[in-house]
Amino acid sequence: SIKALSAPVVTQDDLKKLAADKAVDYVKSGMVLGLGTGSTAAFVVDKLGSLIKSGQLTDIVGVPTSKRTQEQAAALGIPLSTLDEHPRIDLAIDGADEVDPYLDLVKGRGGALLREKMVEAASEKFVVVVDESKLVAGLGGSGLAMPVEVVQFCWKYNLTRLSELFEEEGVAAKLRLAADGKPYVTDNSNFIIDLYFNTPIKDSSAADLEIASLEGVVDHGLFLGMATAVIIAGSDGVSVKTK
């Protein structure tokens, strides 16, 4: 008799780790690195920590994009700095919530969009690591949150303005809440308004400018024209897309 052997189940975390391991191939000793935030970026930071500990990477300096990444990296012995000390970064590695065919991104569902954008804009190269579930035909197409960071002062005023801005698209704008039911507060002491699109954003470049032009908006989760490469882990293996 022949017994059928079931294939091992590949989890989303397995895919994230595959993409993270591939991204670390871009890292060379002596680099200043932007360290992303989120579940996929956490695998990258773990891998960097082990390579530094083993001596395979030396003279690395990390610039974290959130307090939780800072804490993780520090616990792993990764030397850390800031944009003030290192305004030019060799390479940033981070995850994304959505990736479209042009390698434009939605980021920030983890709440760190402002610091992520600052660090990644200062980077010579920005490598994005995702699993295949993050691929969309158009930004906003997942139906999940596209975050906008706003100052706490009169946040409801800006929630209304953001709703009106995309009224024709039928967008729902909601204040992000923490687990305790209180408003979620970012590392920068701001609130987040999450936009939920019924259909992909028609013109991401226009949306970028329109959202950013609102007084009281600090930044938003549209990361356009920033990615150097996107590493995608899927059931068929790992692929790399570049512009």
TrEMBL record:
GO terms for molecular function: ribose-5-phosphate isomerase activity. Pathway: Carbohydrate degradation; pentose phosphate pathway; D-ribose 5-phosphate from D-ribulose 5-phosphate (non-oxidative stage): step 1/1. The keyword Isomerase applies. Its EC number is 5.3.1.6. Signal peptide: none annotated. The keyword Lipid metabolism does not apply. GO terms for biological process: pentose-phosphate shunt, non-oxidative branch. This is ribose-5-phosphate isomerase.
